User: Fold this.
Amino acid sequence: MKIRSSPVIPSLICPGVPLDGAQAGVVVRIIDSDASVYANYLVQTADGTQYCGQMDVRRRRNRDALLRLALESGRSVMVIGGINSYVKAAMVGAPSHALFESTGGSNPNDARSGRP
Assistant:
């Protein structure tokens, strides 16, 4: 009988508040670590709070591809987290539909919109 260990808590790998419930913002970072079989996603909301969720990319390739697209394009996302901050659902907005305006700061982790 093979015993599986529980997932690594994202806060040990990824800074930010554990993802619990629905959050809307932009993906600012994806972290893939040898310490976990899960990839970790850092989502920043309009108020600057960063939430960290995790997901097994081997089982959820489409969801991972959506979040990577959002990171590369700067599109707004909504993610839903469950037990152990596991990403249960992810939605990506159209380029012209921003959930919020950019803060205009020079910090590369600032929330941004798809508008010029």
In short: The chain is about 10% helix and 35% strand. Residues 61-73 form the longest helix (13 residues). Strands lie at 17-18, 21-32, 39-44, 50-55, 76-81, 87-92.
